[in-house]
Amino acid sequence: MHKAAVTEYPVHELIRNRWSPRAFSDRPVEPAVLASLFEAARWAASSFNDQPWAYLVASRDDKENFAKMLGVLVEGNQKWAKDAPVLALSVARKHFHHTGKPNPVAVHDVGAANAQLTAEATSRGLLVHQMAGFSHEKARLAFGIPEGWDPVSAIAIGYPGDPQILPEDFRKSELAPRTRKPIREFVMSGSWGHTAPFAAK
Amino acid sequence: MHKAAVTEYPVHELIRNRWSPRAFSDRPVEPAVLASLFEAARWAASSFNDQPWAYLVASRDDKENFAKMLGVLVEGNQKWAKDAPVLALSVARKHFHHTGKPNPVAVHDVGAANAQLTAEATSRGLLVHQMAGFSHEKARLAFGIPEGWDPVSAIAIGYPGDPQILPEDFRKSELAPRTRKPIREFVMSGSWGHTAPFAAK
Fold it and tell me: CB B108 to CB A197 under 8 A?
């Protein structure tokens, strides 16, 4: 299913066509495609080029690993993510590699890497649904995530599926229009609360 | 100047061509282009669709506002950012709008919005250089950023410029090859430290 954003200002199709589905196709994600998705994450910007990101990835055909990953999610996410062909976890390194000091933008930079992964996926006809709903503690135990690294988001990846496979409540939100506050509400200039003139339409 | 990433796996040109320059052209950024950049940020994914992002933006032709923004940056960044046509600050709302509870992925989601802004910029021939090097306290005072919101990154935006305008140390890094650790070092599967098979090239 496609669900392009209805934008107020024109944006590139990779931005417009990105959305977070719950219905995924059975089609597996080819290893070469997965490699390109994480290659896209690799080239994100990061403070001091620290690259504070790591990923744990489980394809559904790797049953043991996939079950472990699924078990980390909260129940509401398990209900639909069980049918995603690929699940992953993004993880942030909390301290800079070169100094050992805390990296205040590590989680920001992981967010950028995840967005690049997602843009690459969109360009290849895949969709990505990220989740904050998972147990950090279970993730740490299940995969042996070491001290100094924190899991950030769980990620479902796959080709679009048929919304009819979803339970009714999920199906409704799958088919609902996409909404966002307009840029005039959050793009300011001069001082807080003053809409930037270019955003004032 | 163009500085496409030399990738190990193919990625979309918006990913490949994104990099963080210090040399920007004098050419102003058209208001309609700025609107599209922030429209791209608008459509990022966020936990509970909370959209925990806001921006303060200063174009160089708005002298007072630009000087205020520039003054927030650390000295090393001021040296080159003074010539960027547009400076901005991204700001994160720390608590969910719908519950008032802390949003553990707010900064992640701002990172994703910034990456979408950057991809849109790349698609239009602009480049973006984000900076963690600025004073949060000065930013808060200068722009009246309220309690509950935290500045995350400063952002320089513009068309590419000639590296020759830069002081020598910056010019060197501007012309140096782009480097990243390969995905086999950070894409794992099954347990921490085990490279995912698809990433093992």
Answer: no
Give the CATH number for residue B63: 3.40.109.10
Residue B40 included in any domain: yes
Number of domains in chain B: 1
B125 touches B25 (CB < 8 A): no
Q: Which domain holds residue A30?
A: 13-162
A164 Cβ contact list (under 8 Å, min separation 6): A23, A171
For A186, name the nearest residue in chain B, comparing CA atoms only.
B54
* HEC assignment per residue over chain B: CCCCCCCCCCCCHHHHCCCCCCCECCCCCCHHHHHHHHHHHHCCCCHHHCCCEEEEEEECCCHHHHHHHHHHECHHHHHHHCCCCEEEEEEEECECCCCCCECCCHHHHHHHHHHHHHHHHHHCCCEEEEECCECHHHHHHHHCCCCCEEEEEEEEEECECCHHHCCHHHHHHHHCCCCCCCHHHCEECCCCCCECHHHCC
B199 to A35: CB separation less than 8 angstroms, yes or no: yes
Which residue type occupies B5?
A: A
Token pair, residue A135, equals 């147990």
Q: Is residue B101 part of a domain?
A: yes
Q: Would you give the DSSP letter of residue A91?
A: E
**Angle formed at CA B84 by CA B146 and CA B45, multiple of 5 degrees:** 50
**Residue A123 domain flag:** yes
pLDDT in single tens digits along all 201 residues of chain A: 789 999 999 999 999 999 999 999 999 999 999 999 999 999 999 999 999 999 999 999 999 999 999 999 999 999 999 999 999 999 999 999 999 999 999 999 999 999 999 999 999 999 999 999 999 999 999 999 999 999 999 999 999 999 999 999 999 999 999 999 999 999 999 999 999 999 998
Cβ contact (<8 Å) for B31 and A198?
A: yes
Closest CA of chain B from A76, distance in Å: 13
Residue of B nearest to A146 (CA): B192
Residue B14 within a domain: no
Q: What separation in angstroms does the CA of B74 have from each of A43, A100, A103, B60, B135?
A: 25, 21, 17, 18, 7
